[in-house]
Amino acid sequence: MDGPLGDVGAVWVFCDPSEERDVWAVVLPALHQGEIFTWSAKLRPGGWEPPVERDERSLLWRSGERAATEQFPGLPRVESRYQVFPNTEPAVREVIGSLGTRSSGFACAVGDREEPRDSWIQSAQIMESHFSLSRDFKNSMDLESRRRRIASLYVRFSVETGFFPVIPLNKHPHGGLVLFCPAESYPDVFRRMASGVTALEGSDATQRINDFLGQGGDLAYL
Predict the structure, then answer these.
(1) What is the pLDDT of residue 2?
(2) Which residue from 28, 73, 81, 192 has the highest number of Cβ atoms inside 10 Å of its Cβ?
(3) Could you give the angle at which helices 141-160 and 117-124 cross, rounded to 10 degrees?
(4) DSSP characters for 27-93?
(5) What is the pTM of this model?
């Protein structure tokens, strides 16, 4: 990501890509945050509209014309969906099912039930621009830099509004996730997530992250 994150801490969790579903299903419920909030986007054919009937998980489901159709001209509309799930092991396994193939159309955060759900929509909708830059235009170094800045704004604003955004790793060479939280919450978050796993702190943790980045690792979608 590019740009300042402010007073934000980050917990990195590495695992074998084949074990991602199990790892997410353990560490996210361990946070004792009540709900998982997601945003997802897909390209759709002309005339597509979301179904009228919505399930209890849907916060907002809408479609619109794409900013440009230079890429994928046969799919002129974009679907954007905001949902909420209980932060339980079965729900986490369902949520991360969409992460088998990395794309730029997904965002996820955990939060307490007391958080207004509209706040999630306000926090995550900036990722719609991230998705547009990724799908509507040919890639360039400038567009990649803009996407990274958008991701930084999304993380910072989500943390400021009471969410802990979670971004998966890109599986090169490891799977896993990075969870962002307020710096003052980091010790408690780290303690909860580290239960039952091998935990590293200080210079050992820094070296582990640098080794991952040196092998081509990065946050997914960025």
Answers:
(1) 65
(2) 28
(3) 160
(4) HTGGG--SEEEEEEEEEE-TT----S---TTEEEEEEEE-S--SSSTT--EEEEEEEEEESSHHHHH
(5) 0.90
